[in-house]
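Hello K.,

You asked for the raw outputs rather than the summary table, so here they are, unedited. I folded two proteins back to back in the same session to keep the settings identical. This is the first:
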Amino acid sequence: NVLYASISPFGTTGPYANYHADSHVIEALSGFSYVTGNPDREPLSMGVELADYFAGVNGYIAVLTALLEGGFNFVDISALESLALADDHTLAVYASTGAVRRRYYSRVLISYPMDLLPCKDGSVAFVVAHVPDPGTRIAQLIEKPHEAENPVLWNMPDRVLRCREFDELVRPW
């Protein structure tokens, strides 16, 4: 038995089957580029071959599944579908409700900020997810202990809704 696997930008069937695209085009079509970068500027690419990676992982899983299940001789992997399915919620929210996700830089809003931020001598990984007493800890980190009770430091919803205020407070550090 021979198993043939095809990994292409849009799959081997459908209206876009004969179209050509690279990973960055697929990234844009899947919605990943839309949520990347400064919201006041054009969307950005992730800077890596993200669609190729996800298509490869899905291809690997599909081939293993086909081999284990038997009876399959062809696996068709679409890079667009692979990357679209990897999105945490942008396309899912749009498909189910029609809502368009707003751009908030490249940050993960559920635990803002969860990103690399510039600092005096380079960058720092700033992750504030499930940290006990976040206001005090952030205030100590940025060397502003008098800000410990500031809701922007203490309260996650305030950090999300007032992200620019948070950035202004943290940026001098």
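The second followed immediately with the same parameters:
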Amino acid sequence: ILNKDMEKMSKSKGQVVNPLDMKNYVGVDGLRYFLVRDVHLGNDAPFSPDLLIGRVNNDLANNLGNLASRTLNLVEKFFDGKVPEPKTQDPLAKELETSALQLGPKVKAAIEKMAPSHALEAIVELLNQANRYLEERAPWKLAKTDLPATATVLYSSLEVLRLAAFLLGPVMPEKMSELQRRLGQSKM
């Protein structure tokens, strides 16, 4: 583990970071996520509180958290908290579904190659795609004129969240159990 200046951490220089202190900032799940995502097995990797907090904010809060918050709030508002049935054909939803179906094999291949950071990267790519889809379709506006299309958008987003919660579970068991609970899923 390297310091922010890309030098090996050294106790004698006072450049060490106590991971137990870092878990107080982002929790155990957040710290574990950062270490798996940013420390490629067998390689040196920089570490600093800023890098840790930045990764957790970008990947988890602004990406996964944003998708979950918007989707779950809209499902509650327009569908009484029940998973809506997809009602319309949507080419962007089909693209998202295709990407989601490819994710499991990508994650498996990365794990088999002892590259868990690449597995997490693939999950984040799908979350990015789902956020772009949600932004593009704007179900908060669409619901005013086309509730069946809104159902399709929210169903697609819920499916990505369900898949992400399952695949991120080994790295973030507490947070993903909570997300599964919010999605109405039993622990997988």
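Residues 39 and 45 are 5 Å apart (CA to CA).

Happy to rerun anything if the numbers look odd on your end.

Regards,
P.
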